[in-house]
Amino acid sequence: MAQVFMKVDVLFLLATVMAISCSNCVRASEVFVVSGSVAVLPCVTSSSTKHSSAVTWKRIFEREERTVWRRDKSGLEFRPVGQAPHAHCPYPNFGNTNYSLHIEGTREEDGGTYRCEVEGQNFQDVKLHVIKVSLTPAEVFEGDQMTVSCSVTPKIKSVIWQWELNGSPITSSGWKQTYTVDKVSQKDAGIWSCLIKNKETPVLTQEVKASTLLHVKGILVPRDNSDVVYAELGSSVTLPCIFSHEFLLNSSSWKRLSKTSKLPSLFIASSNPGVSGCSSVLRDRSAYIERVQDGDEGTYKCSGQVTGDNNKRVTVERSIQLVTAQVVSSYRNGKTTLTCRISNPTQVTSYEWIHVEYGVNDTQTFTSVQKSTSKVLSIPKEKQLGEWMCRFYNQQQLLGNATYHLQMMSGLEGQEKSTSGNKVVTIIGLCFLFLLLVLIVLQLYKNHRRRKMILQYPAMETIVHLAANEREFRERVKVREKTQNGACGEDL
């Protein structure tokens, strides 16, 4: 019986010692910080002291305590030899209760357990977790395979992972620590964020986010092969093709993916330096069409061979579709009808017809007349003049527009009406004039032939001429004799 009481006393004494020893223990708090940022390890005492207190920050590494930063009562700070001064306590030690440690430019090797010891106070343990997002490979080209991973140092259990790209969640990531893209495109460029949450840590009530920026080397504009450029016939248009400035552009070219027509006159944009002071880096190779004509619609391809920082050569290309638009008119029974004709209306969902009127000082008044899925507009009689504009949309996004100047065309139609009224009279007059000209030409031809036939016998022409002169002379003599005879008879 005495032995039993002795065992009970021993157990009670052991429990008392453990309770006393653990009375100075505080459960370690956890701090999550993104690599490269400032980590704040909290150390706040319960009450302020009337005199200066010494404070020491230690790191527990494999059950061994190593001093990270220390400050004595006089305010003198101490750091380990050879350690960079990126850890300090910005708060004064006189009359202060906050002795939190600030670590600037946090690295992965800074993760671990830290202990704060303040003179006359209980020590506090803080566990620092460093989160880092990394990309593999570091230099990503279009078409490469890329893996983005999220690491936490030191590791923790029961972690919820979630990936975001430019603020939008990636549902296919599957709550994994790593995410792989088999074929990288410009759509994958941007800010990749890793969101983590430890279910077992009540301190971490919200998600912690770490991010990294991904640059995909290739053609920046357009981002993919789905780009469509709309242009009105007669206007100018630019087909964009801008390479990443990290590239050394060796060669580039434009082709047309149409077998029925030739490549129109393209003006390639001048080479712009991608990096200031490096004129050998080219990136803007856009094509410019000065005047779009009917038949220029189709698909164009921009391609180029480029070299990366690691001397890796890659051929990148983009396909751009050019869609032309115009407004055609038809006039029948005194009514004008306009039709918005688009070479490829696949993406067009609605049309809007706008009447533009010009006032004093070139002021313009825009009036929406019709907005529907119909591309045909019947113009009312009270609005026969002015300019009409056809706008076409994809949902609520404006794709392009085409204009039609009805005022000039109305004058031509009026002129056509007046001309058609005198059409019969004009035809009759032209026929009469033609017949008159034919008769004159025939008469001139006959005279010419007659003179030509006479000139063929010059001797006969002389005889005839002499005989005519002699006959005329005889007649004159006879007339003279008769006149004289008559005068003599009167004298008798």
From TrEMBL:
SMART domains cross-referenced by the UniProt entry: IG, IGc2
Listed GO MF terms: MHC class II protein binding; protein tyrosine kinase binding
One Pfam family, short name: V-set
Domain Ig-like: 15-127, 131-211, 222-321, 334-407
GO BP, one annotated term: positive regulation of ERK1 and ERK2 cascade
Membrane-traversing stretches: 424-445
Protein name (Swiss-Prot/TrEMBL): Ig-like domain-containing protein
Keyword Membrane recorded: yes
GO cellular component: external side of plasma membrane; membrane raft
Annotated signal peptide: 1-28
UniProt superkingdom: Eukaryota
UniProt keyword annotation of Membrane present: yes
Keyword vocabulary terms for this entry: Membrane, Signal, Transmembrane, Transmembrane helix
